[in-house]
Structure formats: C-alpha cells, structure tokens
Amino acid sequence: MTRANLIFAALLAVLLPLSLFAGRVWINPFADVGPIADADNVGLILMELRMPRAILAVVIGAGLGAAGAAMQGYLRNPLADPGLFGIAPMAALGAVASFWIGVTWVLPIFALIGAGLGMALLAAIAGRTPSGAGGGIALFTLAGLMIASLAGTLTALAITMAPNAFAMSQIVLWLNGALTDRSWDEVWIAAPLTVVGLGLLFTAARSLDALTLGDDTARSMGVNPSRLLLILVGGVGLTIGAGVAVAGIIGFVGLIVPHLVRPLTDKMPSSLLVPSALAGACLVLLADSLVRILPFVTELRLGIMLSLIGAPFFLWLLLRMRKGEL
Amino acid sequence: MKLACETLTIARGGNLVVNRVTSRFEAGHITAIVGPNGAGKSSLVQALTGLIEPAHGKVLLGDQDIASILPATRAKHIGYLPQNAEIVWDVSVRNLIALGRHPHGDAAAQPVEEAIKVMQLEKLRDAPATRLSGGERARVLLARVLAGTPDWILADEPLAALDLAHQLALIEHLKTCAKAGAGVIIVLHDLALAMNHADRVVVMNKGRMITRGAPRNALASEVIEQAWGVKTRWIGVPGQRALATLGM
Hints:
Oligomer: heterodimer
Distance between the termini of chain B: 42 Å
Order of helices and strands of chain A: HHHHHHHHHHHHH
Structural class of chain B: alpha/beta
Number of strands of chain B: 12
Mean pLDDT of chain A: 86
C-alpha cells in the first residue's frame, strides 16, 4: 500500500465513526445509554439517519475524487474538474425536469437519464473520428463546456418557468447538493453505479500514464484513444451521475482532491486514482459532518459548503500556476 | 522483423502528403529520411508507426499489414519518438522511462535499467522529468523508447533541439541500437548528419520519394538541387563531410 493510500485510508477510518457520532444530537459511544427508549432512539439515529448519510458521503466523495483524478490525467490539466464537462449539469437538468412533473420518486431516474444523455453527446462529438485518432482534448473540453452551458441554460429556463413557487424553491434548494435526510434507498441507487464507475476508471489507469507523454506517443504505445474516451466518459458519467441523482450538485471535490493527493504520490496519473477516491470520501464526509454541527438556524447545504472551500482554493491554484509553482 | 511500405499514400485535407511511396527498411541500419519542409517526412514516419491510416497502399510489419495488427502488439515492435514530444506531469526520470514498458504490460526493471545505463542517465534517475535541459530531455525520451526493447526505433527529428555535442552523442546511441540489431529510422533536417552517419537515406519531396540508397548517391548535389532548389557541393573526407551552399 502506498503512502498516500495509507494516509487517506487511516483518515477515513477516523472520520467515519466521528461522523456517525456528530450532529445536532451528539452520541457518546462510551456512555451508558440508559433507558431502553433512549437506546432505541440512538440506534434509529445511527442506523437510519447517520449511517446511510455517512456511506453516501463516502460513495459520492470517492466517485468525485477518482473522477477528478482521471479527468485531470486525461486532459493533462491540473485545473480540470469533472463537473465542468456537461455530465453533472445534464444530470441536474434531468432532475429539474422531474420537479416539473411533480413526481419526486422519478428524480434519480431522470438525473441518470440526463447524465446518460450528456455522456452520449460528449462521446459522439469528441469520440472516434474517421482516422481513429479521436478528437483530442481541445474538442473534448469545448464539447463538454458547451453541453454544460446548454444544460445550465435549460435548467435556468426550467427555474424561471417553474409551475409554482414551491417547485421553484425546491429546484433551487436541490441544485445546491446536500445529503440531508437521505436514506438507504439512495445508498442502493448510488453505491452500485459508483462501484461500476470506479471500476471503469481504474481500468483506464495505465492508459492515463501513457498520456503523460502526449497523444501521439500514447497511441504509438498501444493506447486506443477512442476506447479510452469511452471508458472515461462511462466511468465519470456513472460516478458523477450517481452522485447528482441522489445528492444534487456537489462541486469542486474532483478539482481539489487530486491536488491534495498529488504531492504524496509519484505524480503518475495511475497512482492518483485510489488515493483520490479515499481523499474524496474523507473530504465529503468531513464537509457533511461540519454542515451538521455548524450552529446555523437551517443546515448549511453541502454543495454550498464545498463551493465556499473550493472556489478560493481554485483561485489559489491559479495564483500558484501564475508563479510557475504548478 | 521486416518493415516496408507498398504504394503508401496518405491524404490530408484533400492533398496527398505521401504519394505512392514504396520502400523496404533494413534492420541493423540507420535510415535517414530527409526532404524540404512539407515533403511528407513526418507523415511517412507516422504511417510506418501505424498511427495514420493510409488512403491507399499499406505498411508491412513482418508479413502483416500493420493496420491488421493490434495496437498493443504493434507497440511491442515499434518504438516511436514524435517531434516535440511532451512531458506533462512532474514524474521522475525513472518512472518516465519505465513507461516504455507499457506495451508489454509489465514493469520489468532490467530493460529500464539498461536504457538508463545506455543513455547515461544514472545521476538523473530521481530528477523531475519536466526540469531537464534540452539534451537531458532528449536522452530521457529516447531511453523511454529503448526500455520497450522495440525491433524498430522511429524518431521524428530527435536532434532538432540539441546542440552539436548532444547531437553526436544521440547519433552514437542510435548507432549502438542499430549495431545491436534494431532498425532505426530517423527524420533529419541536417543533410551533413545524414551524409556522415546514416547507412541509408530516403529523400522525399512533395510527398514522393525521389530517391533512396547509400548517402553518397542519395544525397548527391544534383538530388539536393532538384529537391531543395539549392546548388551545393560536398566538401571534406568521407565520414566528415560538410555541405557548402553555392546559391539558389
């Protein structure tokens, strides 16, 4: 096990139980719980509220972290965020469409359909060209940004034309992701999809390493760019799509995490994937525990919390880049 | 293993950048591909590597059409060093050279160490690959190709960014590879380097191969005048020739 894996696995092992005990109701695992009614309540809080929420944080964080590391490796750019490339905004658009219909249980399905459409569009535009060379990273980036922009515009349209004020407030709230009141149902939606997505991303590891030497060299080394693109679009689509389907938009994790991990590794894109998944799980778990215990009247949204951390972090990265430190 | 092309034709944007080139390359030799800008040298090398699908004709690796060989199998036999090769992440020299094992799907230490030794990179082993000088960088990139122990080494202007001493050193390394049995095909701009160091020369102009053969014949003054439109004369003794230009 590498150093980075060890550090973030240990951190996760500490954060996970802490997040179960932290919240509006603090649970002391060493205290005598007293009357049976109390014990039941504690068990209920743990098993039905905190446990699924913590597992979801881990699952979504792991997906976002690994997707971020894979995207930065693929685009050979340390500023790439998987949320920028159309899949998350398309998933969000799908979810918003479900508010329009007014049937809440279809939300995850609509979000996944949105993510799937985003993936298909991205693969169709940036994928295989007649020469088999693929469209390259410029085409991928521009196509991704345009899909994101279109999805964002349609989402804005859906908000302004919402059927009623309640739907409008629901949409706006939901767009700023959160893990509040999530149950085991959401875990069962997100976890399997994320596991498959992570599996796809991990199979791309060696090809991402080869890309360190540029497109042409990677191709000469046996990397099939069209296949790699499909694997990555599939892997990122499943992990990001699953996250948006159950928690809404949670930004910046995929951007920040690979930066935290990179100095602890040999900087090969493949060495980043597993520790980024672990670190992503830690970050979302930590942020979600913080929004629970911060003393606001209403709970701070997780998506807002992470953006508050993430946007300044991004600016700091740009400053470092300007100084040539990155 | 043989490498050859038959009536190889490559089209780009409606133009034929390589036009019906037939040639057979010899293992154990250095073949220099020369020609004026836009002659189709890089396209020819990319097609020989299997990176470009020809519009017509084919490239043969062994007795097989290269297009029908799996990319991973092809990569075990052909090592390619593109023009302006990039290095993106700040990986160590050792790790970058070890990428050469990618086609074999292993992390065999022996060929990697061998490549480090041949390219005299022992002291730079742990240095970050993005902070090397031009000469070190060229050696590291070639070492990456060598670590894959390919039968063929195809390099597109590997000497372009190098000073005189490093040019000679790299040429010597390539000669060592050829002596060990590898086929070496390099695109060169410096005709004197081709004249003095290549075993065979292929001269390209406007997509066509206008001649090939021993450097003395293929790079005769008449050929240079025909392809480059410059009157020249070779001076000096064999192996140390220099090209004097006499005007357009």
